[in-house]
């Protein structure tokens, strides 16, 4: 007898091909039959012509620590997500060395959050084991994160790595790849990634080809420096002979809107030369990050404690205020093109300032009778640098362009949920794609949208036999109603679950049933099966 049959569905199999009517049979962890199925099963669910699709893959998020506190992953499960890819933007809780643990923790905290217990790992492989031991409801996969790598070897030093330090980083990177990491991620906007030359990155990337590893990057500038930043990472990938994935591609700042067309052309030109380049996008016109990213890059040298020391100096504050007042050549000053009214505080560290969550800097500075730059610096001091922001700096038309691009996949870029007002993408990304970009604006067909959240990310991140409704594949399955699927999370009320996703199957076990979590915890840590070419 079969374990589960999903009957009477519109099967959108993940290939991008048109949907077809049929049933899906599951035995153990595997899809065993697709079509008209007449056998008996322990459980039969009539999905009443709703879509049966592969489980959705969130190919770029920051749930690295959240998975331990919330192993049921209900926020993602209710969106149909069965797998998350972490370790993005160079930000991850591994690898680390005990001497630099506090530095790494303060570095990642505004994006990834914090744990209230000692980390039982140091290496990427040990982190993978710890996630697997927590028995999550969803699958996880990870990169080796460059920020963690560089901090482990040389802290926050703003200088080129020595030959010995590069060798040490390459060794730790190789250990992570052998353990099953899918590649190397870097955040060129964030210190210490921003301190790293393209030549140094290319040398690190030289480790990747032997493991068929992917180079994933938050580029150095997404505003005025968008195009040179895209050219830089293409140069690195070409030099090292690696596949390139550009994270959350966007044109930030009003004066740069429309340049996204030129950025996509750079990707197409690289592909025409035989390079393997792709990108991801989230379906919103606002991003989310740490407030410290607004500061000039030189201020961030040495880690958060040194940043706070600088912000206490009237002389340094005057320099920062002056630099933020006009465009910069070497870094993207988005305050210039976007304005303080576009910077909303989403998470404060202390109870004292909790009432400021959801307010923008321009509003708070007016309340306090301060220049916005001084207000921002005072807030960072009051909150020990631990402030998360939502940043409205993108054009809806640009977002549509990247969503429609056939080499882009959809990802949430969601941060920790332990914040006051998280970006609504944490709760709404995947339903929003189907509600807004398929049903409302018709930017994508149903089949194209499913491919962008299933087989494409599975292929890109080498996640094994997932992402297709095909016999012999792992039974990660999402059932949704294409007419009613809808996100409800907003910037004002971000903690609202979506509608229209009744059932989710993970590793063959019904994990969401009629919209309710069954408490099944069948997720695994997916370790890349690298075809090592040593």
From TrEMBL:
<dbReference type="InterPro" id="IPR023100">
    <property type="entry name" value="D-aminoacylase_insert_dom_sf"/>
</dbReference>
<dbReference type="InterPro" id="IPR032466">
    <property type="entry name" value="Metal_Hydrolase"/>
</dbReference>
<dbReference type="InterPro" id="IPR011059">
    <property type="entry name" value="Metal-dep_hydrolase_composite"/>
</dbReference>
<feature type="domain" description="Amidohydrolase 3">
    <location>
        <begin position="43"/>
        <end position="257"/>
    </location>
</feature>
<dbReference type="Pfam" id="PF07969">
    <property type="entry name" value="Amidohydro_3"/>
</dbReference>
<protein>
    <submittedName>
        <fullName>Aminoacylase</fullName>
    </submittedName>
</protein>
<dbReference type="InterPro" id="IPR050378">
    <property type="entry name" value="Metallo-dep_Hydrolases_sf"/>
</dbReference>
<feature type="domain" description="Amidohydrolase 3">
    <location>
        <begin position="397"/>
        <end position="510"/>
    </location>
</feature>
<dbReference type="InterPro" id="IPR013108">
    <property type="entry name" value="Amidohydro_3"/>
</dbReference>
